[in-house]
Amino acid sequence: MTSTTTNRWRTIDIVIASVIAVAFGVIFWAWDALWAATENAFLFFPPAQSVLYGMWFLPAVLSGLIIRKPGAAFFTETVAAIISALLGNKWGATVIFQGAAQGLGAELAFALFRYRVFTLPVGILSGALAGVVAAVFDWFVWTYDYDLWSYRVPYALITVASAAVVAGAGAWLVVRALAPTGVLDRFAAGRERALI
């Protein structure tokens, strides 16, 4: 579907983006613990653990699909990363920069369509681009000394796939589930619920 509304942020946009960011900041913190707890479960093929990665991009795509304005994906993902860092994680403050980069990746998909198209394919593209940015970030920051073909390449491919499915399609499904409840009626995503 398309949108022709102004790109100026309203107070409700800032409030909802912040609420999503804070909620996912806490979820990130819990997901950090889940990531650590499941490391042994993926010893058979460690890169496969990145199948869990997509959750870390979900707020960027979700905010982009709901608020539909420039900066929504970037703002929400960055604030969620800050909350996660403040709550504590094993990666420290680096996650703030990583979250901001991932937010920019998700933002790019909406920008490519000039913030006028918010369909499932655009959501999937947004998630996938966030995953690409995360994979590149990890490539140079976290996994640079791992083997290229047995770890880094499959890790990157699985990360992007997880991002496309969990964050991209997942966020679109969350919007689709929320719209009939009326909580998104102040947004085009809610008003167009019959067309989602």
UniProtKB/TrEMBL annotation:
Tell me which UniProt keywords the record has, alphabetically: Membrane, Transmembrane, Transmembrane helix
Q: Which residues cross the membrane?
A: 12-31, 51-67, 120-142, 154-175
A Pfam family: ABC_cobalt
Q: Which InterPro entries match?
A: ABC_thiamin-permease_prd (IPR017195)
State if Membrane is listed as a keyword: yes
Domain of life, per lineage: Bacteria
| The protein, known as | ABC transporter permease
Species whose genome carries this gene: Actinoplanes ianthinogenes
